[in-house]
Amino acid sequence: MSEPAASPKTGASPPESTRTGPGRLLVAVYGLFALSASARAAVQIGTKFSHAPVAYVLSAFAAVVYILATVTLSNGRPTARRIAVVSCSVEFIGVLAVGTWSIADPATFPDATVWSGYGSGYGFVPLVLPIFGLLWLRHWARRARRASAERAIVPSAGDGGVDEGAHPARSPVRSVRDPE
Amino acid sequence: MSGAVPTTIIVYSLAFAGFALLMTALNRRMGLTLLVGLGVLEILLLVLVGMIVARLADGGRPASVPTLIGYLIATPLVPLIAGFWGALERSRWGPAVIAVAGLASAVLVVRFHEIWPAIHV
């Protein structure tokens, strides 16, 4: 496969981010849930809102959370990662709360949401997805901390593998200028 | 509507997802085989969409028409988006994305049957 002329950074492979590697799968599954939750919420709210208002509002809320997670995880910059941590946490709490509520008080849920019964209608994927999301984000938070610590101690030992948002001045040793 | 096409899609997409997962397990990257398999899945899904649209044109109606239309639009997008997203990845996780598309397609066909039982499986 021919390599397109990449951004003026070092290395042949695209920079790693929360959207590469296992993150590629994570973003795909989040995208799938963003699509299905928002479609479901749109149809429910648009056609029969009075039938089960609580369930439909929660469907819409779940849709927003999934969209947010998909966008922030595929972005991968430090600010996006921080938002992703919040949205994955809210998602996890939401699955647990709505799951418990739907079992304790089924009358409020004449129609299902994505998170009803802890996501049982979706093979419990909604229950495990935020766990994997948070683990993946923790992996990246640690990696970023390690990278910034290394840069602080040995400024010239830039490994080039981690590309953090706060670009420190490039070390003089590596500043071979790319022709632009 | 005969159940041959939906059943074929379910069997094919599950087998295809299994193959893609095997590629992930074997640490393979995206290759031509997976993209061709994805193309076959896309064609099968478009055939199903065409059959359902023909049935709608004949005057058949499911309980919830908006839901069905949403599925008719979203379903053919799944292999397309998965193909682009998976092709961007240079590791075993590319085939894993394709596996998700296979599993999702099988689920979507089952959902078509639930939305409109006239679509046999």
Describe this structure in words.
- The complex is a heterodimer of chains A (180) and B (121).
- Chain A has 180 residues and is an all-alpha fold.
- Chain A has a domain at 22-144.
- Chain A contains 4 helices and no strands.
- Chain A is elongated, with a radius of gyration of 21 Å.
- Residues 1-11 and 160-180 of chain A have low confidence and may be disordered.
- The mean pLDDT of chain B is 94.
- Chain B has one domain.
- Chain B has helices spanning 4-25, 32-57, 65-74, 77-87, 93-115.
- In chain B, helix 2 (32-57) packs antiparallel against helix 4.
- Chain B contains 5 helices and no strands.
Give the SSE map.
The complex is a heterodimer of chains A (180) and B (121).
Chain A: H1 22-48, H2 53-75, H3 78-104, H4 125-153
Chain B: H1 4-25, H2 32-57, H3 65-74, H4 77-87, H5 93-115
Helix pairs in contact in B: 1-2, 1-5, 2-4, 2-5, 4-5
Largest interface summary: A-B, 20 and 22 residues
Task: Output the helix-strand order of chain B.
Answer: HHHHH
Overall radius of gyration of chain B = 15 Å
Assembly state: heterodimer
Short structural description:
Chain A has helices at residues 22-48, 53-75, 78-104, 125-153. By secondary structure, chain A is an all-alpha fold.
Relevant terms:
A: mainly alpha; 0% strand; disordered N terminus; disordered C terminus; B: 121 residues; mainly alpha; 76% helix
